[in-house]
Amino acid sequence: MTTAVAARRRSGRPAVPGAGQRSNLRLLAHQVRYEQLSFWRNPQSAVFTFVFPVVFVIIMGALFGGIGKNSYFGGLSALQYYVPTIAALSVLGSCYGQLAVALAARRQAGILKRIRATPLPAWAYFAGLLAHCVLVSVIDIALIVVVGRLYGVPFPSHWLAIMLTLVLGAASFCALGVAVASVISNAEAAPAVAQLVLFPLMFISGTYLPINSALLNRVSGWLPVRPFNEALTGPFARHAGVDWRNLAVLAAWGAVGAVVAVRRFRWDPRPE
Amino acid sequence: MPNAVEVSGLRKSYGRVHAVRDVGFTVGYGEIVALLGPNGAGKTTTLEILEGFRSRDGGTAEVLGYDPGERSSARELRERTGLVLQDIAVEPYLTVRETIARSAGYYRAPRDVTEVIGLVGLAGLERRKVRSLSGGQKRRLDLALGLIGGPALLYLDEPTTGFDPAARRDAWQLVRGLRAAGLTVLLTTHDMDEAQALADRVVLLSGGVVVAAGEPAALGGREAERARISFRLPDGYRAADLPVPSHSVPSHSVPSHGVPSHGADGVVVVETDTPTQALHRLTDWAITRGIALTGLTVQRPSLEDVYLELTSEGASARAPERSTR
Residue B105 maps to which CATH number? Predict the structure, then answer.
């Protein structure tokens, strides 16, 4: 039997150049598929991820649906303002918040350690998570746009700019989510820590209310949430294209998150 | 053929705690070796260094010809080793088959999913969600994940903790079957019965050092130790009345006087190199007089006695001299 195993191993080794790339792609597809399966099977996570942003748009529509173009909302109608910020909020929620919490929980449960014991490379694991987050964000944004349409918000015209902003935002917030999961040690603390950082940040970044303070806007302009809000609001509501300046700020934060994540991420529930 | 695992002079500290001070042992291909010891003896730390989860502070370690601390060969080593951790760590919402198939996809040449399901005794439960499995079934699933990559070496960290006796026997049977199929197994346990039932060789750890190593039957010179016959005498009989030749019945408590000892609770203990003969004489003597030797037992020092003696406080202080490697 040992020889049979050895023979299978030899034949399984990539012999042709380029086969390594193909097997990496296959590995990634495999990982994405099972991440999706785990997610959709868990009724709680699926419902919370998609129901929450939709309910939020409905509430905002009920509260402010009648407010037309207005200087308070920067020349937009209330719902034109809220559709992109709630879209940003849903991306933040699934890429940053849920990811940090899920990773901390998986680490505590030993699931990450178990994954680490297999030959699956770390990049493939994280690429699988990122692909999952992008997919969830796309679905979220589509739902929000459709519900917004019911309140008279026109469909956005610059889909390409939105997609680029979305992918870059998702990647940056995923990196920050992994970074937060890396610096907190226990899963019970994860939701609190993640929210503690996120909630005030969203508030000063105009997610819930437009901010009319030059100082706050200047500060939050260098933090990750406002650039993302603005980069989405442009193509959503102002017929603008890709907002390179804001995307650069976002990408810089993503890079910071990635550095922290690479240096500090632990697979093992117990500290070294 | 070189060994599957070779460890020598292994050291690891967490801050000021010396979890592993000097550990050395080998595991031959096809062997089952148990790292036995109380909690905190350094078993899991040793295992985690070999699994590549922890760095070592000193010493050498080689697993299947690779250094487990070397990052460049980590993936290759993981292709060829399987492990079952102490905690059950599986996603609750996948089915049994999906969970195993997911892990199978991570390996270059995995074993057949259906075959592994059958091997661990989960046939018929393929479509069950993991969260609806019993604790024992989840452990089987964990084992399946350890085996799916077709490993040459399997690590089992306290594999039967929390099992009921029947499940434990099944698990032992399964591990023996794996060895018969050519697998090498390194396991940790604090359960002496488990070490005795499963392991070809036992490495006894205490306080981060190896205090004894060898076949379970011979551990700590147990084989060479004398048998102890103990019983109670009825009133009116003294230990000195016994017919056992004095040279073969040194007292337990006063070894050199050649008199069976009389314990405080009336238990007489006879230590002997020839238990068969001594027992025959004792029972013959008792039957002739029409008396009973109540509570009659014959014992060799159990693995537990050896374990407790070697892992006690004093023993760990002496440990470096006792260590055979």
Answer: 3.40.50.300
The whole-number average pLDDT for the span B256-269 is 55
Same domain, B43 and B181: yes
| A19's tokens | 């086969």
- Examine the pLDDT at B313 and tell me if it is beyond 80: no
Please judge whether A118 and B149 are an interchain contact, meaning their C-beta atoms are less than 8 angstroms apart. yes
Buried b (16+ CB within 10 A) or exposed e, A47-84: eebbeebbebbeebbeebbeeeeeeebbebbbbbbbbb
Question: Do residue B40 and residue B113 come from a single domain?
Answer: yes
Q: In which band, very low, low, confident or very high, does the pLDDT at B220 lie, cut at 50, 70 and 90?
A: low
Same domain, B155 and B269: no
- Residue pairs between chains A and B whose CB atoms are closer than 8 Å: 85
Query: How close, in Å, is residue A89 to chain B by CA atoms?
Result: 27
Pair B71, B167 in one domain: yes
Measure B133 CA to nearest chain A CA, in Å. 16
Identify all chain A residues contacting B100, using CB atoms and an 8 Å cutoff.
none
- pLDDT higher than 50, residue B2: yes
DSSP, collapsed to helix, strand or coil, labels residue B82 as: strand
Give the neighbor-by-neighbor strand order of the sheet with B261-262: B261-262, B267-272, B227-232, B294-299
Which residue range is the domain that position B34 belongs to?
5-222
Same-domain check for residues B242 and B273: yes
Together in a domain, B260 and B181: no
Could you tell me if residue A201 is inside a domain? yes
Tally of domains within chain A: 1
Is A223 part of any domain? yes
Average pLDDT (B173-177) is: 90
Residues of B in contact with A116 (CB under 8 A): 53
Contacting B residues, span 152-191, partner chain A, CB-CB under 8 Å: 152, 181-182
Whether B104 and B84 share a structural domain: yes
Quick check: is A170 in a domain?
yes
Whether A8 and B75 lie within 8 Å, measured CB to CB: no
Domain encompassing residue A123? 30-264
List of residues 6+ apart from A113 with CB closer than 8 A: A107, A267, A268, A269, B53, B85, B89
pLDDT in tens, B82-102: 998 877 778 888 999 999 999
- Across the interface, do B53 and A116 touch by the CB < 8 Å criterion? yes
Average pLDDT of every residue of chain B: 83
pLDDT at B139: 86
Predicted complex ipTM exceeds 0.95: no
Average pLDDT, chain A: 87
Judge whether residue A191 has pLDDT over 80: yes
Domain boundary among B161, B194, B222: B222
Q: What domain count does chain B have?
A: 2
Show Cβ contacts of residue A36 under 8 Å, excluding neighbours closer than 6 positions.
Answer: A132, A135
Closest chain A residue to the Cα of B30, Cα to Cα:
A2
Can you tell me the distance from the alpha carbon of A81 to that of A204, in angstroms, rounded to the nearest whole number? 15
* B102/A30 Cβ within 8 A: yes
Cβ atoms of B259 and B252 within 8 Å: the answer is no
**Pairing outcome for strands B261-262 and B227-232:** unpaired
Q: Which residue in B has a C-alpha nearest to residue A14's C-alpha?
A: B108
pLDDT band of B265, cuts 50, 70, 90: low
| Model confidence band, residue A5 (pLDDT cutoffs 50, 70, 90) | very low
Binding-site residues on chain A for chain B (CB distance < 8 A): 1-2, 5, 8-9, 11-13, 23, 27, 30-31, 34, 37-38, 41-42, 109-111, 113-114, 116-121, 267-269, 272
